[in-house]
Structure formats: C-alpha cells, structure tokens
Amino acid sequence: MDLRPLLDGQATLAGVRAAFLEQAAKTGPDDVFVLYLAGRGLALDGRYHFLALEGIEGPGVFTHVLLAGLHGGADATGNQNQEIEVSELADYLDREVPRVSQERFGYAIFPMRDLQGQSFTIGRVGGAPPP
C-alpha cells in the first residue's frame, strides 16, 4: 500500500497534479487507486461545495481513524488475515469514528457509508501488495 498524503500547503493544483503523475507511473492494471479528500461539505443555493479543511490541529477524526485502519487496525478487528479489505475498513470506520469523536469532542460523529458489490483487498498489513 502506497499512501501519499498532501497536507496543507502541499495540496495545491501543482502538488495534486505532481502526485497524480507520480502515482500513475507506479500503478498497474491490477492495482486499486483510492483518492481520499478530507474536508467538509456545504450545500449553498442548491449546489454542493467542498471545503478543504479537517482538523484544527492535525488531521480530523475521520482521517485519523482511516489511517489507523489502513495501518492494520481494520484487519486486527476484522478477519485477521493480514489483508485490509474494503468492507473491513468500512466496518472499522463505522465503529471507531463515533467512539473517537465522542472521546475527543463529547459527541459522536457518524460516517456515511454506501458500499455496493463485493468487498476486495486494498492492502496488506505491513505494506506488502495484495496477492
């Protein structure tokens, strides 16, 4: 698994383009590419706007839990086969985001989820590529 975060001043148009080109050179036909944008959504006059902001001090709760899941937390509480599957990661987020936000802020945040089709492996614990 190759995580490539672009934080704060790195997330410029030029920075995002460079990251896409770098990742495209490493991505093969059997690989899975996941783009994750952290921020908040705002509906204004019937149009959706993405606001690129997360936590005031570091990553927000969702990003924090997502990275913990991708680094093995999702498999540790899932089937423990050393592979991180999309459904395991979604289950982990559903369970941990409310728990962590309750601890941090005193109220629970609940992520939205819409998975369709079969689950698949997106990474291996320890960073080895999926089989």
* Tally of DSSP helical segments: 3
Characterize the overall form: globular
Q: Could you tell me the number of beta strands?
A: 4
* Percentage of residues in DSSP E strands: 5-15%
Gap from first CA to last CA: 12 Å
Low-confidence stretches: none
The chain-level mean pLDDT equals 80
Task: Pick out its properties.
single chain, 131 residues, alpha+beta, two-stranded antiparallel sheet, 3 helices, 4 strands, globular
Quick description:
This protein is an alpha+beta fold. It has one domain.
Structural commentary:
The protein is α+β, with helices and mostly antiparallel strands. The chain has 3 helices and 4 strands. A hairpin with a 2-residue loop joins β1 and β2 (47-51). It has one domain. The strands form 2 sheets. Strands 1-2 form a two-stranded antiparallel ribbon. Strands 3-4 form a two-stranded antiparallel ribbon. The chain is globular, with a radius of gyration of 16 Å.
